[in-house]
Amino acid sequence: MSRSAGALALVAAVAGALVAVVLGFLTFGAQATVAADGVPVAVAAPPEIAQRVAAHGGGQLAWTVATPAEARQLLEDKKVYGVLELGPGAAATVVTSGAVNPSGTQVAQQALTGAAAALAGAPRQEVLHPVSLAGRAAPLAASALAWIGALVAGLALTQLAKRTGRAAGAGARFLQVAGVGVLVTAVVAGFFALWDAALPLTAEVLGFVFLAATAFAALQAGLLRLLGLRAMAVLGPLYLVAPAVAGQVPELLHPAYRAVLWSWTPFRFSAEGLRSLLQGVPDAPDVTTGVWVLGALLAGGLLVTLWPGRSARQEAEPHLPDRVVEVGVH
After folding, report:
1. Is residue 123 within 8 Å of residue 117, measured between CB atoms?
2. What is the pLDDT of residues 239-286, one digit of tens each?
């Protein structure tokens, strides 16, 4: 074996190891390090009882003492993941919401049920905005489908332009972004109807899905225009973040994943905003946040995608007929 062949083999081995590191960090690592840390919950109880309850859970829970009305409003605003209501002489009630991320709801429900059982026996369970299994999965599924649909469309346009030898102009790129928005929204709506006919296909829901799909398509089209196929090294791994990180609440993630990935991943803004809309909570703060973030991604992506550049000027110039040589006049 020559030295050059050995060097190439070593480079290939290192590349494989680096890919394994990235995949492990983005997927299995986030799941393997899940642990509750400051999960926000509320308790509505007389002061002496509330103090006893707040001592339950240690650092795994972050308690807020409030009146029943205030606690339920915190749950509606998704600032807590569950509420424990305790009244003098009355049975305890654990209140959760289908509009809250299921991973946060599960942890809160288990913790609040345990705290209630220690004080007043098995509590009554109450769910605001009841959600089906399809309703739990739909928000993240729609976000992932929008991302992968936009990614395939952007890659296809890039490859077709490369094969034909003609760079895609601004009109073609805009048509791709708009087309992805319309078609992916139709696909998601079809899946929602198939999975659970009770899922609302209102103008607000479909409009939010369209915004997410076009924002993802514009962002990806901009990066593909700047970097070409090299952008896949960024866009491809980002798809893995959806189920591994965006599906969790930050209080269950390792601080490193919370800061490095969860804090900025676009999937969480689309998934949580859509979750609130599907469960009939359009006034939840994450809907407004999602609209602003996705709108900014759409605007920034379109700016990069449609900004006139060298390739655009070349396309605007008339093409000479084949085998005709332009001769300058001197």
Report:
1. yes
2. 877 777 778 888 888 888 888 888 888 889 999 999 999 999 999 999
Contact 75, 82 (CB under 8 A): yes
pTM here is 0.83
Q: For residue 45, which of 93, 78, 12 has the smallest C-alpha distance?
A: 93
253's tokens? 């993630």
CA distance 222 to 283: 32
Sheet containing 61-65: order of strands: 61-65, 39-44, 83-85, 93-97, 124-128
* HEC-encoded secondary structure of 263-299: CCCHHHHHHHHHHHHHCCCCCCHHHHHHHHHHHHHHH
Q: Phi and psi for 97 in degrees, rounded to 5?
A: -135, 135
If we measure between CA atoms, which residue out of 301, 160, 306 comes closest to residue 229?
160
199-230 b/e (C-beta count within 10 Å ≥ 16 → b): beeeebbbebbbbbbbbbbbbbbbbbbeeeee
* Alpha-carbon distance values, 27 to 42, 85, 116, 125 (Å): 31, 37, 35, 33
Phi and psi at residue 38, to the nearest 5°: 70, 40
